[in-house]
């Protein structure tokens, strides 16, 4: 009885906690919502061969536009619906002062709206993650996607593309003094990339010993790099320059891992819309608009060599 009484006083009943409640550990900042570790590649898949993936449909002859169902739909709506994101500094981001979506991609989209609707402001931007670009085109959530979207054979099987409007190179972003000078130094390290991008596959091929952390948006990569939750970021140099411009302690390092030709995505069921978009891109190459937009948004990348020359398949 004495033992039982002592146990009761000590709180030995089975319903009582055996010790103090565990306290949460706030020492490490949380990862962004949607962050995950990419699965390791199970093998090297053979590269798809579709010839020249950047070859697109030739624009309609200047001054002639036959009846186009997709154009009639856009004109009846009164605005061009464009998919992009607001986490790609320099290309598409929200101006903190005005709330307006700005950047090179945003202005390319406005030039297409200028030609299709007569007014560059008749555009509606819908925010997409990189992984949502192709589904949004295929279910007609958007008319076009202008979102640093690399043209390749795999994507050509799912959507159509314009001609190339910008040529980037995949590289690596790391903290100054980190000792990381390129992909060779990333073995055993954590590298951030946006989910649904070619950057993940390229890094896994070039440096299979790296752990790839995927996040929904490129801005998330900047956050986890600054919080030292990853050692580096890999994507196109143009996007890395936008991240580096926000933090003087970061630098782009190493050689190009892969060329990244950007195209405007279009639903495969709308080939005539591809021709109209290519007509706009031809116009901005010829009349100096491309160079003006480059100087405004991308001058930090150095002097331009000019807009990429178009390749046509017909």
Task: Please sum up the structure shown.
With 314 residues, the chain is of the alpha/beta class.
Q: Number of helical runs? A: 10
Could you tell me the mean pLDDT?
Answer: 89
How many structural units, i.e. domains?
2
Strand order of the largest sheet: 1-10-9-11-8-12-7-2-6
* Distance between the first and last residues' Cα: 97 Å
CATH topology of the largest domain: D-Maltodextrin-Binding Protein, domain 2
Name the assembly state: single chain
CATH architecture of the largest domain: 3-Layer(aba) Sandwich
According to CATH, the homologous superfamily of the largest domain is Periplasmic binding protein-like II
Q: For the CA atoms, what is the radius of gyration? A: 25 Å
Q: Please report the first level of CATH classification, the CATH class of the largest domain.
A: Alpha Beta
H/E series, N to C?
A: HEHEEEEHEHEHEEHEHEHEHH
Largest sheet: 9 strands, mixed
**Broad shape:** globular
Class by alpha and beta content: alpha/beta
Q: What is the number of beta strands?
A: 12
Low-pLDDT parts are: 1-27
Description:
This protein has 2 domains: about 70-165 and about 260-300, Periplasmic binding protein-like II (D-Maltodextrin-Binding Protein, domain 2, 3-Layer(aba) Sandwich); about 170-260, Periplasmic binding protein-like II (D-Maltodextrin-Binding Protein, domain 2, 3-Layer(aba) Sandwich), CATH 3.40.190. Residues about 1-25 have low confidence and may be disordered. Helix content is about 30%, strand content about 20%. The strands form 2 sheets. A 9-stranded mixed sheet has the order 1-10-9-11-8-12-7-2-6, with helices on both faces. Strands 3-4-5 form a 3-stranded antiparallel sheet. The chain has helices at about 1-10, 70-75, 105-115, 135-140, 155, 200-205, 220-225, 235-245, 270-285, 290-295; strands spanning about 35, 80-85, 85-90, 90-95, 100, 125, 145, 160-175, 190-195, 210-215, 230-235, 250-265. A hairpin with a 3-residue loop joins strand 3 and strand 4 (about 90-95). It is of the alpha/beta class and about 325 residues long.
């Amino acid at each position: 009885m004495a033992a039982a009484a002592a146990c009761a006083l000590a709180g030995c009943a089975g319903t009582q906690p055996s010790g103090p409640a565990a306290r949460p550990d706030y020492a490490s900042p949380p990862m962004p919502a949607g962050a995950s570790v990419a699965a390791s590649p199970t093998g090297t898949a053979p590269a798809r061969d579709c010839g020249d993936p950047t070859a697109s449909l030739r624009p309609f002859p200047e001054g002639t536009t036959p009846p186009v169902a997709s154009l009639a739909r856009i004109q009846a709506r009164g605005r061009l619906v464009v998919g992009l994101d607001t986490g790609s500094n320099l290309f598409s981001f929200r101006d903190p002062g005005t709330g307006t979506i700005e950047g090179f991609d945003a202005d390319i989209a406005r030039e297409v709206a200028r030609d299709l609707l007569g007014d560059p402001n008749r555009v509606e931007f819908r925010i997409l993650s990189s992984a949502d670009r192709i589904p949004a085109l295929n279910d007609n959530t958007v008319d076009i996607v202008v979102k640093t979207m690399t043209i390749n054979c795999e994507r050509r099987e799912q959507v159509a593309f314009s001609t190339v409007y910008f040529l980037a190179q995949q590289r690596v972003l790391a903290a100054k003094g980190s000792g990381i000078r390129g992909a060779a130094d990333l073995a055993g390290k954590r590298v951030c990339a946006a989910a649904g991008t070619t950057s993940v596959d390229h890094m896994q091929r070039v440096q299979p010993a790296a752990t790839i952390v995927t996040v929904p948006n490129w801005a998330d990569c900047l956050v986890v790099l600054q919080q030292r939750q990853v050692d580096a970021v890999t994507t196109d140099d143009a996007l890395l320059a936008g991240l580096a411009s926000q933090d003087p302690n970061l630098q782009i390092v190493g050689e190009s891992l892969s060329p990244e030709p950007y195209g405007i995505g279009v639903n495969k069921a709308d080939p005539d819309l591809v021709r109209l978009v290519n007509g706009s891109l031809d116009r901005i190459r010829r009349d100096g608009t491309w160079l003006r937009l480059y100087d405004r948004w991308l001058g930090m990348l150095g002097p331009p060599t000019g807009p990429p020359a178009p390749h046509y398949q017909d």
